[in-house]
Amino acid sequence: MTTAPIRQEAGTLTVRGVAIPVLDDEALFDVTAEDGVFTAFTPAGRRTGSEPELWPGYTETHAHVSLPANWDDSVDDPRIVALQYLYHGVTHVVDMFGFPLVDDAWRAGREASPWPYPEIVHCGYAVTAMTDAAGRNGHGVEFPAPVHMLAVEADLEHALRSNAERGGTFLKVMFTDGTEQPGSPVRFSRLSERVLRFTARIAAERGVTAVVDCNTLEETLFAYECGFRLFAHTVRDRTLDDADWKQLDGARFVSTLAGLRSMIMTREEFLAEYGREGFLDTQDPHNLEFVRTVEQPFGIEYGCQETRTAALADMRRNALAALRRGELLIGTDSGNLGAYHGYSFLSELALLAGDDEGLTEELRRQATVTGRRHFDELSGVRAAEQPLRAGAAATFNLHTAGGPLSALPLATVVNGVPIDRAALARTIAELRSAPSKGKASL
To answer: How far apart are CA 318 and CA 205, in angstroms?
Structure first.
């Protein structure tokens, strides 16, 4: 492994002879930072191709810190979640609903932590439909976090006000009946057309960015026609063609393959997935013990193996099409069963790339520069065109040139502070050895 060329003396951090592809594909740079911010990017010759690459920190664009990712339905202590993200080089996190449940614990952990926490932006709680005549609830009700159920337009005002009071800066809207493939069963009620249109209009008028959760092309096209442009997932019931994309001009989509894949994995696939560096250092080891007992994919047990497999294939093809259009955001839906904070972000990148090494740089760019721009947008602040610039926070990862996307960064620095990965692992182990076993009580 290449040694990370980082030096820190008397408050000044220096990184020498690194490539920075987002600035110049062919040049090397010496980088300096003081008091947690970049002060200079100085050209230092031409790259040969083997030098470490400096990139902005990763941005996870679809997470749920308060939902149970573990197979025993437990929720990790937010102090552990923060360190899981740092360990894997994720420095910015978009929480898609439920964060107020753990907000106090997150803040307390951040104040006591020797390391800067990842920055986080959240929506508060999602809005969804009421129970319909068939007894189906709106999507989101099935999770152990509150949601706002909208029956009429006037209900939106309470949701917006309540979320703002809890620190939410954007709106998450559920609009899916749960269909994954043609012929698969309807699982959820959906917002009425009147309420959906009203929600999109009011959010736009108030300058609140809205993210909508859809499954099918029909739902996505309808939400787009209502005014939504940010989608929490890629379409999963068919592969979009040129005519479909023309109807969705300017729409952006979050990838979220990792959040759905665990349903269809075999024991051997689980063991390979959980065998990468960092799993046992950051995740609950009982997850590994559990998957060793898996006899068949859960999709077979629940009768959805074929539909979920087909849905994931459509989602990946649609994600790669969005990538080519510059409209893909990288996110995992972590907090869903088997989608782990930090660890699954690297899995997501690998799932998207597949065997195509030619996608590495573009996926890394979407996971960093584009993801950070999205984070700033949801935060309600003006997004900087380039996070690697003098005066910006000195937050970045170093990566081995040509290394796999599933590999841990060589080094992570947050606000000028180098992150000691071994120390993070020790702290996580200490939290798991406490009487709470490192679990949150919500």
So the answer is: 30
Q: Given this model, what pLDDT does residue 169 score?
A: 98
H helices present in 145-185, as ranges: 155-165
The C-alpha atoms of residue 241 and residue 217 are separated, in whole angstroms, by 11
Burial status of residue 49 (CB atoms within 10 A of its CB: 0-12, 13-18, 19 or more): exposed
Using an 8 Å Cβ cutoff, are 245 and 217 in contact? no
88, 56 Cβ separation under 8 angstroms: no
CA distance 76 to 67: 9
At 281, which helix (H) or strand (E)?
A: helix 279-282
Instruction: Give the DSSP letter string of 300-361.
Output: HHTT-HHHHHHHHHHHHHHHHHHHHTT-EE----BTBTT--TTHHHHHHHHHHHTT-GGGHH
Given the structure tokens 């937050």, which residue do they identify? 395
For the segment 322-348, what is each residue's pLDDT rounded down to a tens digit?
999 999 999 999 999 999 999 999 999
Paired residues of 33 in beta bridges: 13, 38
Sequence-ordered list of residues with C-beta below 8 angstroms from that of 253, at least 6 positions apart, any chain: 231, 233, 234, 235, 318, 319, 322, 327, 328, 329
Q: What is the DSSP letter of 439?
A: B
User: For residues 321 and 344, what is the distance between their CA atoms, to the nearest angstrom?
Assistant: 22
Q: Is the Cβ–Cβ distance between 190 and 177 less than 8 Å?
A: yes
The rounded distance, in Å, linking the Cα atoms of 100 and 123 is 9
> What's this model's pTM, rounded to 2 decimal places?
0.97
Closest among 91, 70, 161 to 432, alpha carbons compared:
70
